[in-house]
Amino acid sequence: QVQLVESGGGLVQPGGSLRLSCAAAGFTFSSFAMSWYRQAPGKERNLVARIRTSGGSTNYADSVKGRFTIARDNVKNTVYLQMNSLKPEDTAVYYCNARYPSWGIPQADYWGQGTQVTVSS
Fold this sequence. Notes:
The chain is an all-beta fold. About 0% of the residues lie in helices and about 50% in strands.
């Protein structure tokens, strides 16, 4: 019923760009905060970027500030992650997350299956 489907991952050279998309269905998308997380092999899953319901406020991990941009389209029920100036250390599986509310114990917390991003020459 609830679906979060990531797409847009792949292999890119250092300095290149990719745009990830996450298509959502089965819940009231506009009421949820949306986030992108990533996890490299053998490491913990970390927050990359978060966007509030209105799209007017965003947060980024220090490691991606100035290079990545998160955006959402509440009509298309889709959240995006534009990744520029990619580095080998950006290599990871990227996951889409939907949470309501964004504070305290969440009433709903949904995850996509992930999409692989590999940055290598």
